[in-house]
Automatic annotation (TrEMBL):
SUPFAM superfamilies: P-loop containing nucleoside triphosphate hydrolases. The lineage of its organism: Bacteria, Bacillati, Actinomycetota, Actinomycetes, Pseudonocardiales. Residues 12-524 form the RecF/RecN/SMC N-terminal domain. Gene3D superfamilies: P-loop containing nucleotide triphosphate hydrolases (3.40.50.300). It comes from Prauserella endophytica. The keyword Ribosomal protein does not apply. This is DNA repair protein RecN.
Length: 601
């Protein structure tokens, strides 16, 4: 990612590690501009105040790699851009000093919303003021579904299939009931048209065939003259006139003369003449047969013209040709099947709607039960993670409740004695609640947690969900705010653990967190000619010791500080080399429980 003219950053190039990249620097050096740049590249709100003073605009350019997911690729191609052969695509966002913003993807100008849609598939930014994904009810439900896996996905798939049919049947029933008079009139018109068409009984392509026959009968004399002349030229005169031998006779004479010679070169030509004679013989026979069909029949011509008149009446009313008329008839029959407004037909539709509603309610209960079980397990695992993130008294609760239907809701469904809204993702509303400490009431997580705590909740969730399919890049801004010591080390360990399956970028001020990074970037601020500029530098291992010592309360110039920094780096390196224990998935746990139940029984 390249940042130009953004805040205090004049021009900086960031090469992120596929694993864990950390960004550090002095307060005010511009660390947060890195996250701001990602925010802009993700389609976030552009602010003119972020444009560097003295520059015309701020520009952020980034290359997204491994853009292979179907949904992400579709977003790129729908925008008119292409994913490169190596699976990457370049995105660019610029903000002018007057606040106007432009976006480009794959070299093409696109709406800013396209960058937002793409980034939602590829990265998630978790900052103190950027927790929108966690606050959205749909995202909270998605957290449960991602954690639950097949235990929710399977019944949810059945629910959606039944829901689609239920909606279709209910919609058709409402339409037939409310438009019965209009539909009856349309049905009468369709039946009248079908009666007319069936009375004429046209055949596919019949109009074109009759047109050819009319042309032939109208020009029968000219056709007979042409065919007769051609027949004479091929076969000779029917009266045997020696002056008009025909092509067949001439060929026979040529074959006779060649057969009589003893020259091999000439006699070899005779078989080829024989082949030509056979071909001409076939043509002559076909010409004779054609002449026999050319009998003048005035009555036949009148019959054809009368038939053409009948067909033209249909083509004037229903389509341009007979094939179109037949297609209209097929469509009319299909439409008539959906226009039956009789009491019997409406009763059948109502009965089918009610049957589907019962089945849908059963699937909705299965989905809710699976979510409820997953919610309890997920809440326990997140709470356990928070204990190591300086939130030892915090406890997560996840509630799964039915969304009540509003008055006039077309998708209301009775489930378990309640009238609820049957949405595409089920009937559930999911909410993450946080008890900040013992005795505190559970509140929505964004109300109970501070900015730093909210980031740590997101970190805990991402660590727990690391096994599930999610975005490939996770960004944490000041996730360690308000913590230190042992808790900071635990945060670093969890981020390093998360980096085993994701690309992780962290902006931090804690050396305990920075020590676990695979790549260390420092934002440096300097002044030249009265102008403050910041740049980004990749630190070598020896430079990392100095930077960590500086972060340790400014101990970069002391042996104690360097020793402490080296100790942090060694401990982090040893942790990253330790193999991660294999964690059983929820499906494996479920299979183990079932096996135990069978054994006990």
């Amino acid at each position: 990612m390249r940042i130009q003219g953004l805040g205090v950053i004049e021009d900086a190039l960031l090469e992120l590690h596929p694993g864990f990249t950390v960004v550090t620097g002095e307060t005010g050096a511009g660390k947060t501009m890195v996250v701001t740049g990602l925010h802009l590249l993700s389609g976030g709100r552009a602010e003119a105040s972020k444009v560097r003073t003295g520059t015309g605009k701020a520009t952020v350019e980034g290359r997204f790699e491994n853009v292979t997911a179907e949904q992400a690729t579709k977003i790129v191609t729908d925008a008119g851009a292409d994913v490169d052969e190596d699976g990457s695509v370049i995105a660019l966002r610029s903000v002018s000093a007057d606040g106007r913003s432009r976006a480009h993807l794959g070299g093409r100008s696109v709406p800013v919303g396209v960058l937002a849609d793409l980034s939602e598939q590829l990265l998630a930014v978790h900052g103190q003021n950027d927790q929108l994904r966690l606050l959205r009810p749909a995202e909270q439900r998605a957290v449960i579904d991602r954690f639950a896996g097949d235990s929710v996905a399977a019944p949810l798939g059945k629910y959606r299939r039944v829901r689609d049919e239920w909606i279709a049947v209910a919609t058709e029933l409402r339409e037939r009931s409310s438009r019965s008079r209009e539909l009856a009139q349309q049905a009468d018109m369709l039946r009248h048209g079908l009666t007319e068409i069936e009375a004429v009984d046209p055949a596919p392509g019949e109009d074109a065939e009759l047109t050819e026959q009319v042309k032939r009968l109208a020009a029968i004399d000219e056709l007979r003259e042409a065919a007769s002349a051609a027949s004479v030229a091929v076969s000779g005169s029917a009266e045997g006139d020696p002056d008009v031998p025909g092509a067949l006779g001439l060929l026979a004479e040529a074959r006779r003369r060649l057969s009589a010679t003893e020259d091999a070169a000439l006699s070899d030509l005779e078989p080829r003449l024989a082949e030509a004679s056979v071909l001409l013989g076939d043509v002559g026979a076909e010409l004779t047969a054609y002449l026999e069909t050319l009998d003048a029949d005035p009555e036949r011509l009148e019959q054809i013209l009368a038939r053409q008149s009948e067909l033209k009446k249909l083509t004037r009313k229903y389509a341009a040709d007979v094939d179109g008329v037949l297609a209209w008839a097929d469509d009319a029959r299909a439409r008539l099947e959906t226009m039956d407004t009789s009491d019997e037909a409406l009763a059948q539709l109502a009965a089918r709607r009610d049957e589907l509603a019962v089945e849908l309610a059963r699937h909705a209960e299965d989905v809710s039960a699976a979510r409820d079980a997953a919610a309890r397990e997920l809440a326990g695992e997140i709470t356990a993670e928070l204990a190591g993130l300086a939130m030892g008294q915090a406890e997560i609760e996840i509630t799964v409740s039915a969304r009540q239907a509003e008055t006039g809701d077309p998708h209301e469904l009775k489930v378990g004695g309640q009238v609820v809204h049957a949405g595409p993702d089920g009937v559930d509303e999911v909410e993450l609640l946080l008890k900040a400490h013992n005795g505190a009431p559970p509140l929505p997580v964004h109300k109970a947690a501070s900015g730093g705590e909210l980031s740590r909740v997101m970190l805990a969730i991402e660590v727990v969900l690391a096994h599930a399919d999610t975005v490939g890049t996770l960004v944490f801004d000041e996730v360690d705010a308000g913590v230190g010591g042992r808790a900071a080390v635990e945060i670093g360990r969890r981020l390093a653990k998360l980096a085993r399956s994701h690309q992780v970028l962290v902006v931090t001020h804690l050396p305990q967190v920075a020590a676990f990074a695979d790549r260390h970037l420092v934002v440096d601020k300097g002044t030249s000619g009265g102008v403050t500029r910041s740049g980004v530098t990749v630190l070598a291992q020896s430079d990392r010791v100095a930077e960590l010592a500086r972060m340790l309360a400014g101990l970069d110039g002391t042996e104690t500080g360097r020793a402490h920094a080296e100790e942090l780096l060694n401990a982090a390196e040893n942790f990253k080399k330790t193999p991660e224990p294999v964690k059983a998935s929820r499906s494996a746990k479920g299979a183990k429980k079932k096996a135990g139940s069978r054994k006990n029984s």
